[in-house]
Each structure stands twice: as C-alpha cells, then as structure tokens.
Amino acid sequence: MSNEQDSQATPSLVMSRSKKILLGLTAIALVYGLSLFGEIHGKDIPESYFSSGYPSILGLLNSEIFMGLIFLVTIAVFVYVAYLLWELHEVAVHRAEETSNPHLQLIFALSLCGLFIDKTWWVLAVILSFTSWEIIGTSLSNIIQRGVKGDQP
C-alpha cells in the first residue's frame, strides 16, 4: 500500500522540482538578458571607487549583471503591486459572487465605473456587495408593518 502511495507522489514531486528548476533558469536567463540592455561605460575600475583602501558600492553598480537583476526586481515589484491593486479593486465583485448576490451585474458595472470614471462608484459597489439585503428587507418590512398598524415600539 505504501509503495503505491510513493509511486503516485513521485511524479508530482518530480514535476514540482522541475518547475522550480525551470523557474530558476528562467530568472537567470532574464537577469542576463536584461543586463545586455544596459551598457556601463568604462570597464576599468578607477581608483576613486575605493575610499581608504576599501571598495565602495560604485564597483557593484558598474556591473551589467547587477543592473539587470535590479531592473528585473523593479519590474517584478511593479507588476505585483498592480496585481494587488487589481485584486483590491475586484473585492466587491468577488464578494458578490461568493454570496450569490442578486445585484452581481450592477456591482460589476459600478466597479468598472469606479475604475474608469470616479472612485465613488467603486465605494458604492463595495457597499452593495457587503450589505445583507435580507436583513434590511426584514427590518423595512417590520417598520412599515408597525406604521400601518399604528403600533409603537
């Protein structure tokens, strides 16, 4: 029984490792490829790069590979922040889908209006998606019933 589990787990483990290796090689290739876009003039390290005998950071900044890595990290940070902002923008739509809100299309339209027109529409979409309409309907119904019957609370 354990041999069957080991043989089933092995292909997924190998696939996971191969994906990690492929991702690492892709990152290295990207760093090298992006370093080709930057040309740093003057490969000789001047004496001014050293202060009192110790090397300063300028020598590292003179490397194309390091600049390629910095460029890759900067682009990755910008893409990740854009992704997080998009997820924040879509929080109303995701909440409406989770709760099967009957106003899903309205919330989606308001969310898009909030993206392109004015953020007030997005705030309205968030309010609509997080509101419990059953409780509000019941409360309004009770208020109307009390008003029609003339009962005091």
TrEMBL record:
It comes from Oceanicoccus sagamiensis. This is Magnesium transporter. Keywords: Membrane, Transmembrane, Transmembrane helix. The chain crosses the membrane at residues 21-40, 65-86, 106-130.
